[in-house]
Each structure stands twice: as C-alpha cells, then as structure tokens.
Amino acid sequence: MDELFGIPLPLLFGQLLLGLINGAFYAMLSLGLAVIFGLLNVINFTHGAQFMMGAFAAWMLLNWFGVNYWFALILVPIIIGATGIVLEKLMISRLYKLDHLYGLLLTFGIGLVIEGVFRNEFGSSGLPYRIPPELSGAWDLGFMFMPVYRGWVVVFAAAVCLATWLVIEKTRLGANLRAATENPALVQAFGINVPRMVTLTYGAGVALAALGGVLAAPIYSVNPQMGSNLIIVVFAVVVIGGMGSILGSVITGFGLGIIEGLTKVFYPEASATVIFVIMIIVLLARPAGLFGRTA
Amino acid sequence: MADGMIRAETDALLAVRGLEAWYGESHVLHGVDIDIKPGEVVTLLGRNGAGKTTTLRAIMGLVGKRAGSIRYNGAELISARSDIIARKGIGYCPEERGIFASLDVTENLMLPPVVMPGGLSLDEIYTLFPNLKERARSQGTKLSGGEQQMLAIARILRTGAKLLLLDEPSEGLAPVIVQQIGRMIREIKQRGFTVLLVEQNFRFAQTVADRHYVMEHGRVVDMVKNEELLTSLDRLHEYLGV
Ligand SMILES: Nc1ncnc2c1ncn2[C@@H]1O[C@H](COP(=O)(O)OP(=O)(O)OP(=O)(O)O)[C@@H](O)[C@H]1O
Ligand SMILES: [Mg+2]
C-alpha cells in the first residue's frame, strides 16, 4: 500500500513532517508567550523579533566568531534572554500599573524597531545557515526520506517544551511562578522578590523564542521578516489554546501544525487560513480557548 | 486611654505609631498606635470597615500609600517593600486566606520561604494539623474552609517568622473548627510566637488573647486587658454594636 485516500504516502508523510516541524515552532513560541502573559499580563508582541534575533545571533556567532551550532544552542538563549531582561527592566516594567494595551503597544513598537534595524543592516533577502554536519543527511524510512535535521528539530523542541512544563508544574520555582501568576502581592508579602521573578520570567520567555530562532536558522533562511511571518500564526495558536495555559499552548502548537500540514495535502487552498478559521470557531464556542480557565 | 498603651519602645516587638494608610485617594487609617511585646497575643477588635484589615495590610506594605512609623525589632519598616518586611520575620495570614488554586496542599505549605531559623518543622506542622498531611496532594482550594484556614496559618509557622498577623481566622467557620483554631493559637503562643489577631468575635478573642485593641474609623480608640474584659463588656458592646 503506498496510497491513502488516493494520496501517495510519501506526500502525506512529507506534509505531516512539515506540519510537525511548524508545530514545534508554534509550540515553543506560544509556550514562551504563555509564560510571559501568565505572570506579566503583557502580550509580548516583540516575540517574533526575538525569535528572529535568535536566528541572527546564531548566524553572527558562526560567521563572525566561528562559534558552531551546538554552542549557539546554549549561548544564544542566554544572550538574547539578557536583552529581554534589560528590556523588561528599562521599559516594560514601567507599564504594569497601566492598562494591558500599553504593554502590547510598547512591545509591538519595539518589535518593529528591531525588525527595521536588522533589515537595514542585513537586507531582506536572507542569509544561509549550514546544517551542522552531525545532523546533515537523511534517514531512509522505507516510505520516505527523513532529513535528520528535521527529526532533530521536532524531538528537541518537544523535549524543551516538556522540560519547561516540568519546571513549571513540578518544581519549587514553578510553584512560586504559578502562585505569583495568581496573586503576586501575597507571594511578595511572603518574602519572595516578585519583581525580580517577573524580570527573570520575561528573560526566560525571550530565551525560549531565541532558542526557537537557533533551531530555525538551518531550515528557513535567516532574514529579518522570519519572526513576523511566524508570529501571527503563533498568536492564533495562543488564542486557540487559551491565554496563559502552558500545556494548552504546547498541545495546540503541535496539533495545529499537523492540521495545517494535512490541510496542505487534502485541501491546499485552505492551508494558509485553516488555523484562523479554527481560531474563529474556538473563539465563538469557547472564548477562553481550548485549555484556558474562564475568569 | 487605658494605661499600657504608652510603653517604652524598647520592650515592644512591634511598635506602630501614627500609622496612616490610603487606598488610592481614600484615606482609611488616620493614625493607628499599637504595641506588642514578644510572646503576646493581641487582638484588634472593631466593626466592619473600622480598618482592622487595612492595619495588617499596612504593616505588611500591601496598601497604596502609608505614613507614620512601624518599628519591628527596632527596624523601621514604614517605607520597606513587602518582601523585605516578610524577611524581617513577620508572617501574614490574609482575611481571604489566600490559598492558591494552582498549587496543591504541600506546595501551598512550602510556598513562603524560610526567612530565619526557629520555624516549625514539617513534622511538627503535620502533628499540629494532621488533615494537611492526609490531603497533601489535593488542590489547595479543594480543602474545606476550616482546612484552608489551617493551611493558611500553618504555612507561616514554617518560615521562622516570630510575629504572625492573622486576619479573622474564625470567620465563617463552624463552632468546633473555631475551637480548634483557638487551641492552635494557644499552642503557638506557648511556642513563643507573637500574634496580632484581627477579630470581630470577642468571645472567641477572649479565649486566646492577652490584650485587645479596639478600632473605630481608622484609629485605635481603646485598649482592654483580657482580665478586664468581663468588667468592660458594656463599653465593648457599644464599640462593637453587638
Ligand atoms: N481596596 C480598597 N479600596 C478602597 N477602599 C477600601 C479597600 N479596602 C477597604 N477599603 C475601605 O477601607 C475601610 C476599612 O476597611 P477594612 O477592610 O480595613 O475594614 P475591617 O475592619 O477589616 O472590616 P471587616 O471587619 O469587614 O473585615 C472601609 O471603609 C473599606 O470600605
Ligand atoms: Mg477585615
């Protein structure tokens, strides 16, 4: 059997794999957004730009300093996460007492500025990033060839999501984070430095976006728009999964990636819009999202 | 004013002077004076809206703006942030209990960090509150009202805080649970904790406290020693409108 519903299996699995890869990025990015939104109540519209900065940082490390992919996986989240910390300290933290809209506008504006600066410096054509030799090549799975790097992206992103979930749900630090998401004033009155926790959480969310950027560099060309193209879909994922729900954003991210991939096979005309159609249906039926708690 | 209100600051663990507090534009406390000696259990009595909760919140640094003086163990806390205040050794149990829905019982219990040595160990806490051990894995807000109150008090016994601010722990609980809470407060007094207890129910307050402050319109207006409570009933009835 090499067909299913009249679709050649290699095509079906190929799109399924592409869907999974997109889903991996949706999951990682919406996870960071969810963590940030939970504690800061800020919808971080700079997220796409921070993802893009992650990819560029990996490219710069490799081409300017000869630092390879594996070190970039560790260094880039730290470097870009640190820029997030500075951003939160200098700007975002001044807006917590105001309406959410101000945080949204600020982060949106910063995202545009960052994108503009990168376009100015690097143009918009895109820079290539070589797949690291250890992960190049493909496996013959019998029914299709599976590029090793793509398998790696899916597995690694899933592991990062799982690890983040474990930290939040199973550790002391995660308990502090959950409690501060519910009632920051009381958590602080127990002696926990909540403002510092907010800053570090923002940094961690940004680090996740940057890590996604490093993963993406060898797949997509490294270009200033790569974040804004992705982030629109990621916001739809966050809305569908439910604002602030950690597990919800991971499951929804992978799930919607797969649905999008399958739509490309069965009804390609709708593949660009299917996620937004789902978003509208979910918003009408469950305004808090699939996994969100109704306030 | 009754004697004992004016006391040398040196022997007070907590000395509050002329404490004022605001929520936004509304001026709620108009000069509160309170002294508590180490090991004492002192209540704040007063009608709804008198400012009892606000007094505790102001001591914890949880109101918008405050003025006056709050000296704890000799340190001035009037402009300190609430986490710094907690780290000086003050434990706070809020009126709404503040049990976290996204944390299980153990996580709720372990949430406040240990700020200094001398707190109860987990074993001692489970001996004092056996229910909490049985329900360790339950979601915090799935506990009964009485159990949530126990949890809210238990978690600040662990931290090494020497002064506990308890806001109406008896509120809305069945009489047997209130008695249990009374026993628990006497037990922690025995262990050397100092307690500032907000209460509306002075029959309950009488069973646990050394002294009682009466609040009205954002001020402390009277102080009654527990021994004098029965002879001061008429006066108290008037303040409390019972
Ligand atoms: N968050 C707030 N914003 C504005 N005003 C407030 C706020 N909380 C309390 N108040 C007002 O401050 C005054 C004192 O309230 P507080 O809660 O301290 O009283 P209380 O003595 O604890 O009363 P109760 O016995 O009902 O708990 C009241 O008039 C109340 O309406
Ligand atoms: Mg009150």
From TrEMBL, chain A:
Keywords: Amino-acid transport, Cell membrane, Membrane, Transmembrane, Transmembrane helix, Transport. GO terms for biological process: amino acid transport. The chain crosses the membrane at residues 12-35, 42-62, 68-87, 99-118, 149-168, 200-220, 232-259, 266-285. One of its GO terms (cellular component) is plasma membrane. Coiled coil: none annotated. It is found in: Cell membrane. Its main location: membrane. It is a multi-pass membrane protein. One of its GO terms (molecular function) is transmembrane transporter activity. It holds the Pfam family BPD_transp_2. Belongs to the binding-protein-dependent transport system permease family. LivHM subfamily. This is Branched-chain amino acid ABC transporter permease.
